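Blinded run. Sample ID left blank on purpose so nobody reads anything into the name before looking at the predicted structure. Input follows.
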Amino acid sequence: MAIEVELRHIEKAYGSFRASDDVSLTVERGRLVGLLGPSGGGKTTILRLIAGLESPDAGDIFLGGQRMNGVAPGKRGIGFVFQDYALFRHMTVRENIAFGLKIQKVPIGEQEKRVSALIDLIGLTGLGDRYPLQLSGGQRQRVAFARALAPSPRLLLLDEPFAAIDAKVRKELRGWLRQTIHRLGITSIFVTHDQDEAVEVADDIIIMQHGHVEQAGTPLAIYQSPRTPFVADFVGTSVHVPDYTVFKGFGDGRGASGGEGIIRPEFLEIGADAAEMRLPLASEDGIVRGVYFRGDCLQVDVEVKGQLLRGRRSLEKRPLHEGDVAKVFIHRIYTFADGGTRILENAAKREEPVVI
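Blinded prediction complete.
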């Protein structure tokens, strides 16, 4: 597939703070990509550099194979949706959407057709004469989206597009945005610090921390094969253990230096007693430290050999309570070595580890 966006060795500093530290990445044409990471990780800086709102200190930016360094923002063919909508309050929905078309001096007749089509696309038919303050937060974000699309950009950039919207509407907009972008086929990059949002919306995820790319790939690939402890911890719910060799099936039980690992909830089997366990002799004794309702299951925090682990338990099973003694079987553990992910299976199931 053709590459729409390419960054090569991008450097950007603000004083002593390195917002982009030798960043190289590519985005394929037609893909919806999430820039994911903690605050201060460099996500928005990358978005602004691509848009031309900032200039790199070093490195090159290409759109559709054309070098963009020094090209003015208005000539890059980019639509930008800001976190706070940035709609013109004194303009109606129709006037806001038409703003970019007027700058391009598109004929009035074509403007009206384009704006009407976009109002239908965003599901606000009949609301074209309303002003932003007469709309809900979700509706205002849809108008901002339509305004960015009106000039027919080659690339759409969205800076935390759901941050200013309440939780229920945010979830609805996620699905709507993904469906709409795929229907239009426009290459899009959005910034978020919410891993659930990135996994739900994006075709591909680029994870950033401290101004550099930690890992890039599909949500499934990153979840199943995190390359670093940071990625494993940031995508999904994970628990770091300082020494996995203390657990049955992963060592001699005495521990050893350098045994750091990561355990996801789905790696655990938690039972009320040995009768519930498929491999009771290989299971550990644990103390339940917390039970939390999570809708379709219970989250169970359980302490095993001084380390707090986190698992899930079906609502259909006998309830567990804080302070209960439980049985815990650890199916597998992530470890990291030589730049890759190593999945260690419990010896009770498999003698040899799997390397990916």
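Unblinding after everyone has recorded impressions. The helical segments are 43-51, 93-103, 108-121, 137-149, 167-184, 195-201, 219-224, 229-234.
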